[in-house]
Amino acid sequence: MENLVTLMGDEKKFTSVSIPVPLFKKVEERIRGTGFTSVSSYVTYVLREIIAEEEKQEDDDQQPFSKEDEERVKDRLRALGYID
Amino acid sequence: MLMGLDCAPPAIIFDRMKGDLPNLEAMMGTGLYGPLRSTIPPITIPAWLVMMSGRSPGRLGLYGFRHRTKFSYDDMWIANSTRMHAPTVWDLLGDEGMRSVIIGVPPSYPPKEMNGVSVGCFITPTTEGEYTYPPEAKAEVERVSGGYITDIEFRTDDRDKLLRELYKMTDRRAKVVRHYAEKGDWDFMMFVEIGLDRINHAFWKFYDTQHHLYEPGNRYEDAIPDYYRHLDGIVGELLEILDDDTLLLATSDHGAKGMRGALCINQWLEEEGLLKFKSKPEGISKFEQCEVDWENTTAWGWGGYYARIFLNVEGREPKGIVPQSDYERVRDDLIARIEAIPDMDGRPLDNFVLKPEQVYKVTNGDYPDLMVFLDDLYWRAAGTVGHPDKYLRENDTGPDDAVHDWNGIIIYKDPKRPAGRPLTGAKLIDIAPTILKLMGASVPPDLDGSPIQPIIDLSNEVSE
Q1: ipTM of predicted assembly, 2 dp
Q2: Which of B45, B356, B363 is nearest to A83 (CA)?
Q3: In angstroms, what separates the C-alpha of B304 from chain A's closest C-alpha?
Q4: Which residues of B touch A12 (CB under 8 A)?
Q5: CA–CA separation, B119 vs B172, rounded Å?
Q6: Do B305 and A81 touch (CB under 8 A)?
Q7: Which segments of chain B belong to CATH 3.40.720.10?
Q8: Interface contact flag, B110 A79, Cβ < 8 Å
Q9: Which chain B residue lies closest to A13 (C-alpha atoms)?
Q10: pLDDT of residue A8 exceeding 50
Q11: What fold does the segment set B2-258+404-459 form as a domain?
Q12: Residues B348/B342, Cβ–Cβ less than 8 Å
């Protein structure tokens, strides 16, 4: 069951997901004394990490530059001394 | 508000131009300031991303502007935002509902989704295409700036033109920065002014009296200080817009110093018998234009502010010849040989060579086998071949009088908590966790950096 909560305008959207109370408590225990300020921010961070790992291959296969653009960028980097 | 001053060196900001940069000095006078240790390698990409993610180049899998695709000889990819998988400060702040505006932070092309606004950096191929997130922001940026410029065309000997373009770019970006600063609908804002880096590289020899090409009384002697003063004025205008609740940071990704020479790394490897060519074009040519005799090649290199050396390893490279069992021995032998390379007059150079796995706890992505720093960065490396001599007095690919240095700068100011003292030991990788902590956001414990304690201590003092 997901519940969409909108905070402070359209761009700050949060949704709540349900996790078992014992797991919540375990996480709460685990993040004590670490830099995480809440269970939500810990869960978000971990999920982000997992998703990033899964999307990595897909992202790395992307070609954001056209051939022409790539040559243009390379020429510029060469002139700047970053590559030769 | 983070003001990114790409390539600003401590020696100029804190010493040589003392008394000449009133706005930055006002920040220093009531804030904390000092050198900011850059990354290994101290290069714009990966440095800004390390600063804004708190993760090492090894974790990010980002070792410079270009990378080999796996272990191919000729396939390479250019650093861009799609390769950046680690969350940045604005991603993490966004997760907690905070909004950011980031302008020109490399690599920010292609534009990525975020909670806020992103304006592309100098990796953007052309401003004719999309370079903002959200895409609608482009019209606003173009309108406010009068034609946004991500970078200047550097390959020119017409230095007057270069200066005109540089000021035009900086002033137009400043308009965009002021525009968003005034709008105020952000929790975190950051911009990177790349113009400092460009002016340092193009005009250093006219300014640095120690440079071997310096001529007293030359017509560009004031180009660098004039530009720094101009930028300081822009900082002043920005500070007038911001309220007393805005924490201020000015940082640079690395420093700068005069270039003493360049070593043609592939010519050197050829002389050492470690690199063989089947054929080479006449005259000076790029390495990729040569036909390499891979069956008889042990190692080859890429140039830049540092050199990357790749070994031709059996079972790894398509035509690898170095047996896996010999890998460490060959690397150690190369390290010893490179560290012993003298300058063109036979004087010793302060070269050092690092193995990536010694530098980083994790080495992701397409890392080199060796990272070479010539004469503690005073010398750069050229990958091109066919030069009459392997030593070059000047860069092989255009005007470039300056190289990078290990220390950039940091100035922190909390308008409500005056300080006015030097800060020592700050590291670039500590900036992201420091910002997160200052803003009350979660600081992931697996970051490679940690909050800068004197800044956190200051923020805990009772405000005025």
Answers
A1: 0.85
A2: B45
A3: 5
A4: 97, 99, 115
A5: 13
A6: yes
A7: 2-258+404-459
A8: no
A9: B97
A10: no
A11: Alkaline Phosphatase, subunit A (3.40.720)
A12: yes
